[in-house]
Request: fold
Amino acid sequence: MKKNTKEARKPVLKVSSLKEKKEPWYHNPVWWLVIITGLLYGRTMNLGFTRLDDSIFIIENEQYNKGFDNLATSFHRGLFHPTDDVYYRPVFLVDFILESKIFGTNPAGYHFTNLLFHLLSVVLLYTFFRRLNISAVNAFLLAMIFAVHPVLSQAVAWIPGRNDMLLMIFFLSGMIVTIDYIKKTGTVLYFAQAFLFLLALFTKETAVIIPIIMTALLIFCFRIPWKKIIPLAAGWVLAVLVWFLVRASATLSPRDDLFSEMMHSALRRLPAIIQYMGKIFFPFNLTVFPVIDEITLVWGVIATILLILLIILSGSYDKPITWIGLFWFLVFLLPVLIVPKSLNDQVFEHRLYVPLIGILLMMGPVIRSTDHWPGSRRYLLFAAILIVFASISFVRTGYYDSPLAFWTKAVEGSPRSCYARMMLGTKVDSPAEREKLFLEAWKLDPTQKNLNYYLGKVMLEKKAFDSAEYFLKREARNTKIPDVYFMLAQLAYTKHQYDTTARYLEKVIQLDPLNPQANSNMVMVYWQMGQKEKAKASLELMRQKGLQMPPNLENMVVKGQ
Reply:
């Protein structure tokens, strides 16, 4: 009996001992990464729109986002426009469709998911570093630098910055799964890594570089023979083929001059690489709307020299991970260099979201070389860096609070940017301040799209008719804004130039067929010109369009009263 009793108690004692050995949650670095990052960026959920693209995808695209059938449509159209666009970002559009079902047009919900995406990216980065056999402490320090770095605050606080986070999530998830597949093999892991690579491709074109980086890591860091990589390469090729065929079927705008313009932009923007390096090591000259010509190269040169010295002193110049990190940094910055000026002339900081990992990979051996330092000195240094970085990031998130706050900071950071000054002018309440900002912007670039329209509108409101006509006619040379021609029609009408008034109103109706005021005015002008048949025809067109006709206008034309 005693023997049986002892045997019966053995499993209980064994389970109890296992529970006692289990480490508490606060010993897990992942929890601290999540907590610290969440506390730093928690305030972003109270931010609004900046009116830089975010309102386009959430407010202007509200009807598009309501249709579930547009989930498939997103893979066959451009990002900003169904046909007149060269950007292809289907995953980005799909994300907004899905989130709109939960958040509608409330910015708080989208800021919340931006924070979740950043948290997930930080955790994946830590996991990726651990897969590379970086120690838990050093992986935590590297991931923590990424989590709080000020240069990435735009990606978190600005809703459209999520596209780079989505790329990061699919990229790192795929690499982690690929490493696991190499160690364990398995059909599920194989297809999972190929599918994640495909999602990365549909997120951003630069994902085509992933197989090269993955192959370099497997061969030079994990010493994996070529034969084991061939099956992976087959999956990657298939994913690229699927992406290419689907993209080829999309209704994108062909640009014959795109390649030459990209090459010209690349030469002009080469200094951006040095500038970005300066922003990584010395993130004190950041701006929400960076213009390449206004960013100093001094900090970038100092940062580059510092990085070279750290690599030499740590002896990491002969380690493959250093050169893979450098390649990673440069190749993922390529889109910044080749984006044509006609599409985008800013060197936004959120674009460092993925390239920054390359610098962290280069810094991995450097940080490892400090392992022999006295613990207090080492951790005090990193604590100081993290506190400074986190403080700057915390302040900068407030710059994205509202359109007025955002564009005010844009003008402060890029005072020679015509577009930033113009956009700030559209956000201020004071008519005098609005006119001042528009005129300052006009001096910087009188050809800026929409600027002459805004100036014409201001001049019309203050009854400076000659100035209003001058600016509106400049805008009318190349615009599709119906209001430009409507205001020109108003000016022509005050001068009793009815033929000119009719011509401008016809243009308004061509651009905006259901504009009730333009249609009504068209009927009235034809009637005043004595062209009664045209007036009646215009009135009939209003009926066919389902537009409500003013009773006095209908009586005048139909009954002659």
Q: What stands out?
A: Residues 107-131 form the longest helix (25 residues). Residues 370 and 378 are 7 Å apart (CA to CA).
